[in-house]
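Our preliminary data section would be incomplete without showing what the modeling component actually yields. Below, a chain of 85 amino acids is followed by its predicted structure, encoded as C-alpha cells that our downstream tools consume directly.
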Amino acid sequence: MSNYLGALHMIGDQIARLTSYIEKRNIRKKTLVLFTADHGDYMTGCGVRLSNAVESVFTSMGDIMPTMCEAIGADIPHGVQGRSL
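Predicted structure:
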C-alpha cells in the first residue's frame, strides 16, 4: 500500500509541474490534458473529472476518443462504440 500511495504522490507532483508549465506559458485555454489510469476500482476510484466537477459514472477506454473529439469540436466518426463524457 505504501508503494501505491508513493506512486500517487509522485504522479501528483508531475501533474503540478505540468499545470505550472501550462499556466506560465498562458496556454491553458488552448490545452487539453487527459490522464487515464487502470485498476482504480481496487482503490474505490470510480469517476470522471470534467471542469472541476466529478461525475460518478462508469467509463471505458472506448469513451476517450469520442470525448476528445467533442472537446476539440470534431465530429465523432460513425461506428464508434464509446460515448463522449
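The mean pLDDT is 81. Residues 32-85 form one domain. Preliminary results of this kind motivate Aim 1 of the renewal.
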